[in-house]
What we know:
Elements: E1 11-15, H1 18-21, E2 30-35, H2 51-59, H3 73-82, H4 86-105, E3 106-117, H5 121-132, E4 137-144, E5 159-166, H6 192-197, E6 204-206, H7 226-236, E7 242-245, H8 252-259, E8 263-268, H9 271-280, E9 287-290, E10 299-300, H10 318-322
Parallel strand pairs: 1-8, 1-9, 2-3, 2-7, 4-6, 7-8
Antiparallel strand pairs: 3-5, 4-5, 9-10
Helix pairs in contact: 3-5, 4-5, 7-8
Bound molecules: S-adenosylmethionine (SAM).
Domain DNA methylase N-4/N-6: 31-275
Family: Belongs to the N(4)/N(6)-methyltransferase family.
Protein name: Site-specific DNA-methyltransferase
Amino acid sequence: MPTAWSQTSPSRVIHADNLEVLPNLPDAAFTLIYLDPPFNTGRSQKRQTTTSVRAAAGGASAAGTITGFKGQRYERIKGDLLGYDDAFEDYWAFLEPRLIEAWRLLADDGTLYLHLDYREAHYAKVLLDALFGRDCFLNELIWAYDYGAKSKSRWPTKHDTILVYVKNPQAYYFDSTTVDREPYMAPGLVTPEKVAKGKLPTDVWWHTIVSPTGKEKTGYPTQKPVGILRRIIQASSREGDWVLDFFAGSGTTGAVAAALGRRFVLVDQNPEALTVMRARFALVPDVQIFPHGLGGPVEAADAAVDPNHLDFPPTEGLGRLVS
Length: 323
Ligand SMILES: C[S@@+](CC[C@H](N)C(=O)[O-])C[C@H]1O[C@@H](n2cnc3c(N)ncnc32)[C@H](O)[C@@H]1O
């Protein structure tokens, strides 16, 4: 069975360091890339030299070039900004080559969603403006939730930030008419027809976290809610498009993509993520699992399920998704 990926391949789950997989994927193949990297907790990340990746990205064509590589502007901003914070410098050294690959892999009409927490978001925004080009910045989404312990010594921090960048500001795909609508905050102020239809979400999304006792739970600690991924995938991709998530975790992006008729490539280096994803995709047709990286053998998701390794039944979550 061929392991090289093309747009005619089945959807895939790959167990590997993403930086080993990404260079094997072809330019401009994905309409949507959603990334939820591990937050920078001060632990030192695996450093990568960026020189060769940078040279490759500078040569990419599609919808223009990355502004940062036209000249010294990005390097200057990076030098100024990262000098303030050693921990973020390490984190950016980890993220930068992966974001450059993400840019290369985005289709001309494609969109990147980068999910960060409040400690990273502002550094990352400045660097991404310089790297992708400020005109490619589309939105800063705030995902607000209200769960867990609350600090009494400052405002409790209960939001994540999702930065949205497009490959080509003149050509990107976006259709908010297909997005799940939400209840009006003051339904008494609008017509009953509007109340029945619901309102279009803005850039602030109130949504519960994945409940530790709820049906959606897979047991993976950093699992993101289906409702958040549904909005992103509905607005920024069409049926049949390819979606990429190379910090896939429990596979929420792929589960939602499949339920909405999109195809997907997911990558994660954690064996526990693979265990969860094997089970999560057991009932999804045409999904290949690569348990040993892209070069290794291929398994069908349903052949690989081991319910004894899970603390949830395999169909939970996905059942809610498709209902
Ligand atoms: C915050 S979690 C993603 C959670 C996911 N959005 C979900 O809904 O379950 C980040 C993931 O990135 C993975 N990861 C970190 N570094 C990686 C790397 N170099 N290559 C592949 N995966 C990586 C971790 O194993 C972890 O599962």
